[in-house]
């Protein structure tokens, strides 16, 4: 089985960077920030990786996705007609927000003498990444979301937030948890929406919630899709500038037509609830493969030409492992730097939804930052 998303820290504390980068190169490997006080990447030492040091990061609340994914058939060549349509820019600003509270930044602050410090700081800690909200805490969720969105707004930058609390998330895998039922989830979503503010924000709505829904009965799937459609509407009603993206899995999972049918039922084809789809969250598939796949999904989905896609490029610099391994596989690299200027038709952004260095559960406890893993990805 092949997974789409793996374990991520489930609090209001994944990271981001000061501004997005305009990455138009062909390589999937990350490029350094254009403006940084860290040393240039070319001059950073590549030291042997010492044994993992103990981080001072708090234990994560419910771990995020580690689904067991079934590989889909190879994707056909994308249609050139719909993919070349002219679209408006995704957001007024192309600058992404780095939230100042994250496991990697905590490690950076507490381990200045570690020989891996400079590499991890420049190549991971300096980049923008999504902030996950994976613990079901209705009483505090509005304030926690608002803290992130207001921080981005104050700097004129775009935060990326990930609601991850739908019932039966991960189909009983490592990321068990979430709301007790859909009524409670719908109420939690309303409180989440109340924290979105009035400035630009990107919402990655429930990784795996659509692509992995085959584990549910037909009735359960219909109920989940209804709640997801409702969530998208709630976000857009609360903040018309919010851009909401729905789960398209990844290029090695469901066939585009099947995924598009589920997405349509979940509200992803309607601009009242959706701005398009996301793919490759916490996975390793090459950016070129994801671009082709996402365009096929969008073509099959229908809806207005304004619908686009965002791709998680955080760990896909070397592509997916040939053996399908998903749990902290060896030999992976950082992918393209986060940006909302991709130069690709219908591709709205490359994002780091999964923070590199946060373990899937093999190199460290699920969802925790592991310096040795981060260093291996970064060097």
Q: Can you give a write-up of this model?
A:
It is a single chain. The chain has one domain: 1, 4-beta cellobiohydrolase (TIM Barrel), CATH 3.20.20.40. It is 28% helix and 8% strand. The protein has nine helices and seven strands; from the N terminus they run H-H-H-E-H-E-H-E-H-E-H-E-H-E-E-H. Helix 4 links the parallel strand 1 and strand 2.
Number of helices: 9
CATH architecture name: Alpha-Beta Barrel
The biggest beta sheet reads: 7 strands, parallel
What's the domain count? 1
**Low-confidence regions:** 1-27, 31-93
Major sheet strand order: 1-2-3-4-5-6-7
Nearest-integer average pLDDT: 81
Shape: globular
First-last Cα distance: 28 Å
Beta-sheet strand percentage? 5-15%
CATH superfamily: 1, 4-beta cellobiohydrolase
CATH class division? Alpha Beta
CATH topology: TIM Barrel
What is the strand tally?
Answer: 7
N-to-C order of helices and strands: HHHEHEHEHEHEHEEH
Structural class: alpha/beta
Summarize, please.
The chain is an alpha/beta fold and 379 residues long.
Helices and strands, with pairings:
Elements: H1 80-83, H2 103-110, H3 117-125, E1 131-133, H4 138-155, E2 160-163, H5 182-193, E3 201-204, H6 218-238, E4 242-247, H7 256-265, E5 276-279, H8 287-301, E6 308-312, E7 347-351, H9 371-378
Parallel strand pairs: 1-2, 2-3, 3-4, 4-5, 5-6, 6-7
Helix pairs in contact: 3-9, 4-5, 5-6, 7-8
What key phrases describe this protein's structure?
glycosidase; 28% helix; alpha/beta; disordered N terminus; Glucanase; 8% strand; 7 strands; seven-stranded parallel sheet; 379 residues; TIM Barrel
């Amino acid at each position: 089985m092949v997974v789409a998303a793996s374990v991520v820290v489930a609090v209001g504390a994944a990271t981001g960077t000061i501004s997005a980068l305009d990455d138009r190169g062909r390589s999937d490997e990350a490029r350094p920030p254009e403006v940084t006080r860290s040393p240039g990447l070319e001059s950073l030492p590549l030291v042997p990786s010492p044994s993992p040091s103990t981080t001072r990061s708090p234990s994560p609340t419910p771990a995020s996705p580690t689904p067991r994914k079934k590989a889909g058939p190879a994707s056909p060549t994308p249609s050139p007609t719909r993919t070349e349509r002219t679209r408006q820019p995704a957001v007024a600003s192309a600058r992404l927000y780095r939230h100042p509270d994250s496991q990697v930044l905590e490690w950076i602050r507490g381990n200045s003498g570690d020989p891996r410090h400079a590499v991890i700081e420049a190549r991971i800690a300096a980049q923008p990444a999504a902030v996950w909200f994976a613990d079901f805490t209705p009483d505090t969720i509005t304030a926690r979301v608002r803290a992130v969105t207001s921080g981005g707004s104050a700097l004129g930058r775009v935060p990326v937030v990930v609601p991850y609390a739908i019932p039966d998330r991960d189909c009983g895998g490592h990321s068990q948890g979430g709301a007790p039922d859909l009524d409670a989830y719908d109420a939690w979503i309303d409180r989440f929406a109340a924290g979105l503010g009035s400035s630009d924000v990107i919402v990655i709505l429930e990784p795996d919630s659509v692509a992995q829904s085959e584990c549910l009965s037909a009735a359960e799937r219909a109920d989940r899709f209804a709640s997801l459609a409702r969530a998208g509407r709630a976000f857009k009603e609360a903040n018309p500038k919010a851009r909401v993206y729905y789960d398209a899995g990844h290029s090695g999972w469901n066939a585009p037509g099947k995924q598009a049918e589920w997405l349509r039922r979940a509200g992803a084809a309607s601009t009242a609830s959706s701005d398009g789809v996301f793919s490759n969250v916490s996975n390793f598939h090459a950016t070129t493969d994801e671009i082709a796949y996402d365009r096929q999904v969008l073509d099959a989905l229908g809806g207005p030409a304004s619908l686009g896609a965002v791709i998680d490029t955080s760990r896909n610099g070397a592509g997916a492992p040939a053996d399908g391994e998903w749990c902290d596989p060896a030999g992976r690299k950082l992918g393209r730097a986060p940006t909302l200027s991709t130069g690709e038709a219908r591709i709205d952004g490359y994002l780091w939804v999964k923070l590199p260095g946060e373990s899937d559960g093999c190199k460290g406890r699920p969802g925790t930052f592991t310096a040795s893993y981060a260093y291996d990805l970064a060097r």
